[in-house]
Amino acid sequence: MSNIIPMLDIVEDTTRNIIPMSGIEVVSDKNKYSFDAVIVATGGMSYPSTGSTGDGYAFARACGHTVTDLKSGLCGLNLEGELFLKLQGVALKNVVFCVKNGSKTVYSELGELLFTHFGISGPIVLSASSIINRMDLRSLQASIDLKSALDEQTLDKRLLRDFEKYKNKKIINALCDLLPQKMISAVLQVSRIPEDKNVNVLTKEERGRLVQALKAFPLKIRSLRGFEEAIITSGGISLSEINPKTMESKKVRGLYFCGEVLDVDAFTGGFNLQIAFATGYAAGNSIPQ
């Protein structure tokens, strides 16, 4: 008889998520069922509307397993303040999103970023979320290098050329070749330069502040988006309690775990699917015939 019976006893209403390997259908009621082996492949906490509500973690805890802290992974970031609201819908390409903890850079990546109604999203933001989701977000400083292909000196020369081209214009109209229109106003706000100031009276100090804002447009992260929007769940059943060759529990004979319910995750690009495929294959092929 299986050692899994105590788990089914404790989590009666969610037994439909246990996958029996004996071909016997499991229904959601208060009866008890016994199997020679069980694979838990319930997923994580992400997208609960699809039925992924964390049942597997309850099963694991009931059987004595350790479940590490569960965090949203590969998700957007909520920002502090209101400046980002003016940028809603702005999509940026070939920018560098950087996150620092004091003087230490914890994440820096070139790619695409999107301003939304809550803050920021996009490929490089999703990846960053899975790096910082276990950190104290209050201690982090985030920024966007809007002109990653140019160093500060080259960017300053570019500004001088544009200002010469638009020397009789206000600065709000003189950065049109450099930035999207919505971004211009935000950059000037960060630079503390009045939008109606003529470029021909702009000081060297103001131009320096503009360069800094372009190379490190500051953002303050408030929180991660929730599991409702997260692509994956970071955290899960401790890998130290799982046999990596068979995916069998080291605590309960005949109990196997695979996929996102485990404490393993990766960036976008098919890696998380590969984790699910590989661990599922290992578990399925390890069950005695």
Describe the fold and architecture.
This protein is an alpha+beta fold and 289 residues long. It has three domains: 5-71 and 231-286, FAD/NAD(P)-binding domain (3-Layer(bba) Sandwich), CATH 3.50.50.60; 73-148 and 218-224, Translation factors (Elongation Factor Tu (Ef-tu), domain 3); 152-213, Helicase, Ruva Protein, domain 3 (Orthogonal Bundle). Helix content is 27%, strand content 20%. The protein is built from seven helices and twelve strands. The chain has helices at residues 5-10, 55-62, 123-132, 152-165, 181-191, 204-215, 271-286, and strands at 18-20, 38-40, 71-73, 77-79, 91-101, 104-115, 119-121, 140-145, 217-219, 221-224, 232-234, 255-257. The strands form three sheets. It has a seven-stranded antiparallel sheet with strand order 9-8-5-6-7-4-10. Strands 1-2-12 form a three-stranded mixed sheet, covered by helices on one side. The chain has a two-stranded antiparallel sheet with strand order 3-11. Helix 4 (152-165) packs across helix 6 and helix 5 packs across helix 6 (204-215). The longest helix is centred in the last third of the chain and has 16 residues, at 271-286. The protein is elongated and about 85 Å long. The two termini are 15 Å apart. Mean pLDDT is 89; it is low at 1-28.
